[in-house]
Design goal:
CATH architecture of the largest domain: 3-Layer(bba) Sandwich
Number of strands: 20
Radius of gyration: 23 Å
Distance between the termini: 42 Å
CATH superfamily of the largest domain: FAD/NAD(P)-binding domain
Structural class: alpha/beta
Length: 499
């Protein structure tokens, strides 16, 4: 694993790197590394991975806050072609996931292809050369195909709160945790009660003098039932790989059943709601606090969270849950709409990410100089969540309508990897310069997504990060994941303009 460290790029090493490649991949998280590995496995070696950080891992590199862990069971949150029998827990902690990605990068030989500490400043399709012209902070390169693997959870969302930039205490986003700052004995405010907050709060609550949790909307929370995986079971997984495969299949099947409630029969989620409400009653005896934490929207409309210790942490004497909207932040305090002022030493923003308005979309220009952000100004659109009309040879990983509310994103990523690799093989076989999805094929797919999204629980009236500025759910896949796998099993040239 040490092979991914110590890659300070000098001018000399940069000058030796290829300036023209077949494929340029942006990002070295699960998507980018997955595509790099897929290309290697199919015999394609003419590619680079452009990574703005000094280390691989994407989301699992950046999010190092206390308690950070995955909310998908370990044996499904990994590449099918790179199983790990040694996960220590049912739900993997962040450090193990990043170590797993490091190991995959080294094992499959993609580390030499990664350009660390390099960020894409601009990428533009050149119709004359039929190449992508890419400008980074380290120089220029060209590529036949450009794959965006930067992901939807890469750019922190900072709320617009009057006075926030004038706060004189310590302020940071949960995905940019300030490990040099100790919160012990401090008065700490956590803004948000989403997936990051419910992991952070139980870890810091015993350390701080006072913890104020500012909640806009209470989440639905189910028991996590996390536990250590005994060594004897891990030994069994190592000795008999079939047992691990059966475990993965069992997890997949169990989670896939959830689609019935999310997409086809939301009423089925009522039984799960009852389980969540019972979990809340058992963990929070105080009726007034329980009322604050009881959701008033359909379960599944927002992301369902898993936790065994968040509710108990909120019942401690040094914790206050505030549901009044924040009016302003002052030098050392937070003021809510009711006029109450709460002294604060540190503010932690657990406020999520830019999901439907990817910042990198501003930097990518297709035919005619149109930016991807402009093409998506009305709504993010991509055929099969992967290719965009007007952007030849551009592949978007974890693009519109590929997200999940019930299962592992790695399954969806692998589906896209197979589709992209098949497209590249077709281009090589037929000696094509470019492929571009036909506008009518994209429009038909977008219309299908809108139609299938209407009866889902995600459009039952709540506000969530699943929705774009127009209130449409352009984030999630409205169906079974195996259907998406089937539809992306092979590249479909009939939907494309080939030249």
């Amino acid at each position: 694993m040490s092979s991914t460290h110590g890659h300070e790029a000098t001018c000399e090493t940069f000058s030796r790197q290829p300036r023209d490649v077949r494929v340029a991949i942006v990002g070295a998280g699960f998507s980018g590394l997955g595509l790099a590995i897929q290309l290697k496995r199919t015999g394609m070696n003419d590619f680079v991975v452009i990574e703005r950080a000094a280390e691989i891992g994407g989301t699992w590199r950046d999010n190092t806050y206390p308690g950070c862990a995955c909310d998908v069971p370990s044996h499904l949150y990994s590449f099918s072609f790179a199983p790990n029998p040694d996960w220590s827990r049912a739900y993997s902690p962040q450090s193990e996931i990043q170590a797993y990605l490091r190991d995959c990068a080294a094992r499959f030989g993609v580390v030499p292809h990664i350009r660390f500490d390099e960020e894409v400043i601009a990428a533009e399709w050149d119709s004359d050369s039929r190449r992508w012209l890419i400008i980074t902070n380290r120089g220029r390169l060209t590529a036949q195909a450009l794959a965006l693997g930067s992901g939807p959870l890469s750019e922190p969302a900072v709320p617009v709160i009057p006075g926030l930039d004038g706060f004189s205490g310590t302020l940071f986003h949960s995905s940019q945790w300030n490990h040099a700052h100790a919160v012990g004995g401090e008065r700490v405010a956590v803004i948000g009660t989403g997936a990051s907050a419910i992991q952070v709060v139980p870890r810091i609550q015993p350390l701080v003098e006072r913890l104020t949790v500012f909640q806009r909307t209470p989440p639905w929370i189910l028991p996590r039932h996390d536990h250590a995986i005994p060594e004897r079971r891990r030994a069994l997984y190592r000795a008999l790989p079939l047992t691990r495969q059966l475990e993965r299949a069992s997890i997949y099947g169990r989670l896939e059943i959830g689609v019935l409630g999310f997409v086809y029969r939301p009423a089925l989620l009522k039984r799960i709601e009852a389980l969540a409400l019972r979990h809340l009653r058992v963990r929070v005896p105080d009726a007034a606090l329980r009322a604050k934490l009881t959701p008033n929207y359909a379960m599944g409309c927002k992301r369902i969270l898993l936790s065994d210790d968040f509710y108990p942490a909120l019942t401690r004497d040094n914790v206050e849950v505030v549901t009044d909207r924040i009016r302003e932040v002052r030098a050392r305090s937070v003021i809510t709409e009711d006029g109450a002022e709460r002294p604060v030493d540190t503010i932690i923003l657990a406020t999520g990410f830019h999901v439907t308005d990817l910042p990198i979309a501003e930097r990518v220009r297709g035919r005619g100089g149109l930016t991807l952000a402009h093409a998506w100004r009305a709504e993010p659109r991509a055929y099969l969540g992967t290719t965009v009309a007007g952007f030849p040879n551009l592949f978007v990983m974890i693009g519109p309508n590929t997200g999940l509310g019930h299962s592992s994103m790695i399954y969806m990523i692998e589906s896209q990897l197979a589709y992209i690799a098949d497209a590249l093989r077709l281009m090589e076989r037929k000696r094509l310069d470019a492929v571009e999805v036909r506008p009518e094929a994209q429009a038909e797919f977008v219309a299908e997504m809108r139609r299938r999204m209407r009866p889902t629980v995600w459009l039952t009236g709540c506000a969530s990060w699943y929705l774009d500025a127009g209130g449409r759910n352009t984030t999630l896949w409205p169906g079974f994941t195996w259907e998406y796998r089937w539809r992306t099993r092979r590249f479909d040239p009939a939907a494309y303009r080939l030249w």
